[in-house]
Amino acid sequence: MSEILKERIKSRMAALGKNPSSVALEAELGRSAVRDILSGKAKNPGYATVAAIARVLDCSVQYLTGRWRRFTPRRQTISSLQSMLAHPISVAFWKPVCFGRSSVRT
């Protein structure tokens, strides 16, 4: 089991004032699931388990597993994606092309 995962779960629990049992219950996992990860008893938790824990700890799976170094609150990530979708990409410079030929007659 990755030490990064253990340390980041502990860090997020401390920041939110939660304990392993409360995180497990909120994530709808077995009561000892988080405690087993932290103790090393659960050596390879599945993606669904880590994703449920990340949701409760308001962070991403990538952060918990060490793929992202910087913590970004899950809500902030979702809102930034929503704002990106709210602003359509300008297509003023796009030229319609069909099978390598322009579909616009000149």
TrEMBL record:
Gene3D superfamilies per UniProt: lambda repressor-like DNA-binding domains (1.10.260.40)
Superkingdom of origin: Bacteria
Residue ranges constituting the HTH cro/C1-type domain according to the UniProt record: 9-64
InterPro entries: Cro/C1-type_HTH, Lambda_DNA-bd_dom_sf
Pfam family, one: HTH_3
Record protein name field: Helix-turn-helix transcriptional regulator
Annotated source species: Sinorhizobium psoraleae
